[in-house]
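Backbone-to-sequence.
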């Protein structure tokens, strides 16, 4: 019997719905929220209101694009957390109601798990490699920076995490200091391509083990610009490309240094990245080079699956369905949800 899953993702400011059938993606629709750009960050109340307006048409389009009928759906999956509580509540409530109306089981998904499991997504005619197990994954996004091992039973084990800020937050906050639009990460990546990555040196944390830290880098970057602008008020504008290139190089080196250490200590050669920051071209190029040097099998997610999307929720739910791991109508969303 075919297994068809409808998945809903609403953890932050993107409303997304996807359909997966027997592990293959049939549709993946995403509605963004431009309203947050003028505020320099996501406004939780505005995000939850936009989700309420977007969720019905997004789900309807996902079902239509997949070429199925609602009665063909075998389970309804949703992001339980982590994320913005108001946004999660919209997706959770809709999933509960939809599943109840169809008399179908519910499947809750950890948003962080889903980013990692996006490597197992497949599309007809585009079947790529999937990681062997165990698999070492660097999960790096606006809110999280973690090192995770997917063990042979498909269970996840966290072996490292940031002790303060995430890498994506460092990109965005430093971009804001330079006057770049929100979200700043993509703008830094674009400008860095035209700059000299060795022009400026920024601090790197000295954290033992496999944990990360980015608060010191943000502070160092802020003070460096403050002092530089005192001598030349046009310093940022005149050196923006080199600043972006040097900052990106520093963040990428912090990320990959720990990844190399984790691979060496675990002996794992199946290595990949996941999360929104993995769209960064500097990180992708660095990982490809390092992987070749260390003879790793490298897995880079498709750019469309790096940011928040329901396709990754759907494939995670597919594996949970096969394990008989279902949720009840009493399930509530969680703003904080560990691995």
């Amino acid at each position: 019997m075919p297994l068809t899953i409808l998945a809903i993702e609403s953890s932050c400011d993107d409303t997304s719905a996807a359909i997966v059938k027997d592990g293959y993606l049939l549709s993946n629709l995403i509605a963004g929220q431009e309203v947050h750009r003028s505020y320099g960050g996501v406004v939780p109340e505005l995000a939850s209101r936009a989700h309420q307006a977007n969720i019905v048409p997004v789900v309807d389009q996902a079902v239509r694009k997949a070429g199925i009928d609602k009665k063909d759906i075998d389970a309804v999956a949703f992001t339980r957390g982590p994320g913005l509580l108001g946004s999660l509540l919209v997706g959770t409530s809709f999933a509960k109601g939809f599943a109840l109306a169809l008399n179908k089981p519910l499947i809750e998904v950890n948003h962080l798990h889903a980013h990692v499991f996006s490597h197992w997504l497949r599309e007809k005619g585009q079947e790529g490699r999937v990681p062997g197990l165990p698999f070492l994954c660097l999960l790096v996004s606006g809110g999280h920076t973690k090192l995770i091992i997917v063990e042979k039973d498909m269970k996840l084990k966290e072996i490292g995490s940031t002790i303060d800020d995430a890498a994506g937050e460092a990109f965005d906050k430093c971009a804001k200091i330079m006057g770049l639009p929100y979200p700043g990460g993509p703008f830094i990546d674009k400008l860095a391509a035209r700059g000299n990555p060795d022009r400026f040196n920024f601090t790197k944390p000295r954290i033992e083990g496999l944990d990360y830290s980015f608060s010191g880098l943000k502070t160092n970057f802020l003070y460096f610009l403050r002092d530089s602008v005192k001598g030349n008020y046009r310093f940022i504008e005149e050196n923006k490309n080199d600043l972006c290139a040097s900052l990106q190089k520093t963040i990428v080196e912090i990320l990959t240094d720990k990844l190399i250490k984790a691979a060496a200590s675990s002996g794992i050669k199946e290595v990949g990245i996941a999360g929104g920051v993995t769209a960064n071209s500097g990180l992708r190029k660095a990982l490809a080079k390092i992987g070749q040097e260390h003879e790793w099998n490298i897995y880079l997610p498709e750019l469309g699956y790096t940011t928040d999307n329901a396709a990754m929720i759907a494939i995670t739910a597919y594996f949970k369905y096969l394990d008989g791991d279902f949720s009840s109508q009493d399930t509530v969303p969680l703003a904080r949800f560990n691995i």
